[in-house]
Specification:
By secondary structure, the chain is mainly beta. The chain is built from no helices and 11 strands. Strands 2, 4, 5, 6, 9, 10 and 11 form a 7-stranded mixed sheet that branches. Strands 1-3-8-7 form a 4-stranded antiparallel sheet, with no helix packed on it. The radius of gyration is 13 Å and the shape is globular. The termini are far apart.
Length: 111
């Protein structure tokens, strides 16, 4: 199984980014897919996930700003991030069932 994350970058506070995580080897629709992030000097933290039945959950601090979704036909999971804040700066990782992990994509939000 491979998870290829992309879409990170540098954005000003209040801006938006959409992260993508393309899976190969297993179906995103048959597994719980999630996003985690790790800021410098901090532990990796859970951000959001989407279950097999489509239920979604979010970290309190991103609720209402971030949206996780998936496209089974493209075998890809997305994280739409709006109203970004400097504290969202981190490397973002996608995961399949917290067993398989992507390589991470850097998100930097300037104030």
């Amino acid at each position: 199984v491979q998870l290829q994350a992309s879409g990170g970058g540098l954005v000003q506070a209040g801006g938006s980014l959409r992260l993508s995580c393309k899976a190969s080897g297993r179906s995103v629709g048959m597994n719980t897919m999630g996003w985690y992030r790790q800021a410098p000097g901090r532990q990796r933290e859970w951000v959001a996930d989407i279950s097999v039945n489509g239920a979604v959950a979010y970290l309190d601090s991103v609720e209402g700003r971030f949206t996780i979704s998936r496209d089974n036909a493209k075998n890809t999971v997305y994280l739409q991030m709006n109203s970004l804040k400097p504290e969202d700066t981190a490397v973002y990782y996608c995961t399949m069932s917290t067993f398989y992990w992507g390589q991470g994509t850097q998100v930097t939000v300037s104030s």
